[in-house]
Amino acid sequence: MRGLGLAGVVLVLLALVYLLGDKSAALVNQAVVTGTLLGGVYALVSMGLTLIFGVLGIVNFAQGTMLTLSMYAAYVLVTSLGLNVYLATLLLVPLLFGLGYLVQLLLLNRLMSEGETEGQLLVTLGLSLLIANGLLLAFGGQPKSITAPVGGNLRFLGAVASVPRVIAFVGAIVLALALTAVLQRTRLGLSIRAVAANGQGAAMVGVNVKRVFAVTFGLGAACVGAAGGLVLPFFSLTPSTGEQFTILAFVIVVLGGLGSVTGAVLGGLAIGLLQTVGGLFVPGTGALLLVFAVFVVVLFVRPQGLFGSDL
Amino acid sequence: MTVDQSARRTTVTTTGGTGSQRQYLVLGVVVLLLALLPLVLPEERQGVAVRTLIFAILAVSWNVMSGYGGMFSFGHAAFFGIGAYVDAYLLVDHGISPWVAMVVGAAAAALFGVATAYASLRYKLAGAYFALATFAFAQMLLLLVSNLSSLRGTEGYNVPILSESSWSKIQFPQGDSRYYWIPLGLLAIAVAVKIALVNSRAGQFVVAARDDATAAEALGIPVMRYRLLAVAISSAIAAVAGVYYVQYYLFVGPDNAFGGSVSIEAIVPAVIGGVGTIWGPLVGAAIVGPLSELTSTLLRNPPAALAFLEGKAGLDVITYAVLLIAIVIFLPRGVYGSLKARFGR
Lengths: 311, 345
Known about the structure:
Chain B: It is found in: Cell membrane. By secondary structure, chain A is mainly α. Chain A has helices spanning 2-20, 25-56, 63-81, 85-107, 117-139, 163-185, 187-197, 199-204, 209-231, 243-256, 261-281, 286-301; strands spanning 153-156, 159-162. Helices cover 74% and strands 3% of the residues of chain A. Chain B is mainly α. Chain B contains 16 helices and 2 strands. Chain B has a two-stranded antiparallel sheet. The model of chain B is unreliable at 1-16 (pLDDT under 50).
């Protein structure tokens, strides 16, 4: 429901830009297409975070750097094994799942009792520093990139969209559908939802809560596993590439509603559009400032109670 | 205070006057000993020592708001950066002394801190949400400054280098010990302020609000007022660290004033040393500061087994990231906090 409301607000704002703004329709069209595709990337990063934040209550500050890690892994698979980047993506999903599973099992599960929010935040922060600097140590700071296996542009409403970005967008939608299916249709999904709703109750009916925690963090990491391969063709890669996504992902997750995959997709699109369409009116990185302003307002007017979680 | 809360935080001893006298005495001795350091330290190590002192001040500041106040700040860069930019703006554009900037910057940062904390607390943001909000405020300042050409955008400020020593502009010959003694003095003042706060009635109220805001409120303590007091003191101290940072490095830009790494460097020494203790942040800074020097020396001249590391960057942060994770999981009270719990009074 909240997702639909959000979509409504975005559509109304867009209509206002078209009708009342002083920018040409072609310019706005391009911004909308670019923003939608960018939103797909944001959705990719936020989907995993919404699970981790919503189910475990963990502020995973390493979400962005886990994306960087996944991109480097994809880079290595492509450049040294000669794999197609999209094939590499399929390998990255289980790889990152395993990593996330272990991180939760070995580190974060020790900090799952109430009032440990700061401890969890600090551990994921440490993890983020560890990954980013580990990559710096291993690969150096020079930007790296691969040539996309498919190139070219699609034309849409007179606007140009590069094919790798469209593929990433489609990937985001497919991933969202797959994740929703797992959560809604499988036994595992049932236990994840049970733990999210009432951990103690779930434990009492025989759910292995610690294992569900680990699987959930694993799924969250698997999402950035998929994202890493999908965005590598159009991002230049440095050890800090992913960091910019971390806070944006939190904005999106709070905007879309904790634990809601659909919310993450719609929130991602909303923020992507805000950034590109807003960028038409505000110079430089001012559009990003707009994003943070939205974040703070959302934090204030939709306090945690409304998200059904009392962190 | 319940058991699970005290696992992360150390109770403040309510010893009153005599306790604080003892703490001031320890502070005096520690500062005197540290003041002798430039006499034995080779000149090229001064940078590490000064950097350690600056981040010790920042960690002391963070500890007031987050350790004692229980309001987890993930955006201390906001206050540090305000101090840094007030200094750069006043000095470079108007020729006003950094000593004035310390007062103005501290006031501006305290104002900003109180305003943002008031808004966040008023809307009942707590825990992770409060932390995210502070982070967002620091990022907003970063973006704002990068876009303001009147504050030189992404270029930042270079402090003009004077031809002669000047106390009022805090400029001395390179390697001068005064570059070390000034931040040491500032650190001493910051710690003294913290001791005074912790031992005061106001400080007890701050801690009471941290441990159980509802109960404190029920006892008639104006929780919001005392929380904001802690935020104001904390932001002011952080701003002073920012002012001195610019004076020592003679440069400030959006990233090294408001960047996320500044906030992290405020948190890490406090957590490693011991959150909610007087000496924890100092112990933490004394561990983290030299550690980065140690690892960078290791990278310059690695032993044969680690030869592949030569000339690489990142090992210093890796070491303290590992330390951070290990401390949070195995020593939640930090190095000093755990020692105190084991051997303390």
